[in-house]
């Protein structure tokens, strides 16, 4: 399953659609304005909130939190002891972890679980400006979660670049 995501994703207060590879509107990203922290909702085509994304307020390092139905689903932060700057750890609520690595700012990276590929994020095969694709490669993977992970990792990498 391939999804097309606009690159200017994290404009606070900005809403926009994520489409599937056939141009159908699948998810709505609802950016919440007037909040102390970056907050977004990922909604289905009928307006139901699937995932809440927000920045963790009092973390030592920049951290994003993904919630579903008010319950913590995942916490994302840059991997500490990695020689690669573009390496992030996604700690899932069930105790498992996803690994995100690649050229985050170039929108060329992968999401892996236990050494197996879950999703490829890339601009390479797209002709639309300021758009990247999230290609979910496993049928049993949660597309909404993987899109939320991609959004969070890009947001964290861009914030880190601003502070350098």
TrEMBL record:
Pfam families: LOR (PF04525). InterPro entries: LOR, LOR_sf, Tubby-like_C. Belongs to the LOR family. This is LURP-one-related family protein.
